[in-house]
Amino acid sequence: MTTDAAAPARPEARNPRGFADRRGRDLIAERRLVQRVSEVYERWGFEPLETGAFEYADALGKFLPDADRPNEGVFALQDDDDQWMALRYDLTAPLARFAAQGWETLPKPFRRYAFGPVWRNEKPGPGRFREFVQCDADTVGSDRPEADAEIIAMACEGLRAAGLDAGQAVVRVSNRKLFDGLFQAGGIEDAGQRLTALRAIDKFDRLGWEGVAALLGEGRLDDSGDYTRGARLPAGVIATIEGFLSSVADEGLTRAGTLDAVARVGGLGEIGEAALTELAAIDAALNAMKVSQDAVRFDPTIVRGLEYYTGAVFEAELLLDTVDDKGRAVRFGSIGGGGRYDDLVARFTGERLPATGFSFGVSRLASALRAAGRGDEDAVRGPVVVIVFSDADMQHYLDAVSELRNAGVAAELYLGRAGMKAQMKYADRRGAPAAVILGGDEIAAGQVTVKDLDAGRALAAGVSDNEAWKSERPGQQIVPRSELVATVARIVKQARTAS
């Protein structure tokens, strides 16, 4: 007796954690955000640039959590020449490499924008993915505070272009040198200890002072059971930071008022005083550009987690209420950020080259807008569907769908083998604005039946009797075959206007 060899094990169909499949609605929402924000960037005089998905690991630098492995915090592999390459974790590090590589041939300052996916080997969370899309704008080669102010003002316009009205988002601004001054005054010289402390302060809005204090001290155990080692700062330095943060807790302060409150704390040293001067110059430029106090606020708790920031830092925060798929409140917080990074290009050239920029987290912003009920779902429509009845009449169906497409109307011919009822359900699930019906009777009479699916749903809602619905056929009209394109185009236009 013989037995067949065991069948090979089937792989489980599953997503890697932090990587999402996205269909039409989500993709179109992201593309529209990129288009709208990119139009703002171009209007402000920034040129597009595209760099590759991979960079050499040493070119990216160790700005994410450090470890012995080059792929800690990033996704890395070895090339055939044994050099480590990594998927880019943002669009700024590749810009620094590009600027260093071709600085002599670039206009100075160099103003560029870029968009595309980035990858981070970090713990996923609500609205936080390992692969996501960013849309950046940066100015390389200017140390003027007006360059920072322009980036901030442009970010505000980008938020409006994304569909957010006044009061629905705010850009918070600070300067990393404020904490450099505090650390210097407290005798904290170790760069790793400073960075750990800054990353702890960066979580102030999410963890509150108690959580931040733990991370400034020995460490913190989060709700999932993960332990994060703290900065282990002296108790006196932690107390100074607490006093510093509490001194500007009043949300009603103007930008100038916040600077005055910080100055009164004292103990900032020469570095911290220089930071206040830079922020005052940014405020003056923002006022000259008529950027309101509500749209941009100074907030010293903003430090940004990446190591390469050297001065002014910015963070865009969504203020809309958001809920998850089950209706539970969820906080998205930051939907974009950036700052000044004057030392990044110097890693390649040895010469300091000032730079500043801002990045929209497109995937995160799209998720946040959808969670706030502000997504583009209603505007994302499927094509007009031409119903198929008989193989013998296929030429009529192909002619109809071609005429619609040639007139600029998105249309598809149903290519399954289901009956009419199932085809109508298919059109509904596709979000089609209309269905085109060319049965034998219509073809013989030189007519076509066009079903306005939006109107049909609206009218059907007011018909309680099933027989009445069948007889009235809400949203359905019969027109001469020659009027097919004009009739469908009118329905599609109405659908776009309504959305």
UniProtKB/TrEMBL annotation:
SUPFAM superfamilies: Class II aaRS ABD-related (SSF52954), Class II aaRS and biotin synthetases (SSF55681)
Top-level EC class: ligase
Reactions listed under catalytic activity: tRNA(His) + L-histidine + ATP = L-histidyl-tRNA(His) + AMP + diphosphate + H(+)
A GO molecular function held by the record: ligase activity
Annotated PROSITE patterns: AA_TRNA_LIGASE_II
Residue span, Aminoacyl-transfer RNA synthetases class-II family profile domain: 31-383
Family in the record: Belongs to the class-II aminoacyl-tRNA synthetase family.
Name of protein: Histidine--tRNA ligase
Annotated organism of origin: Brevundimonas denitrificans
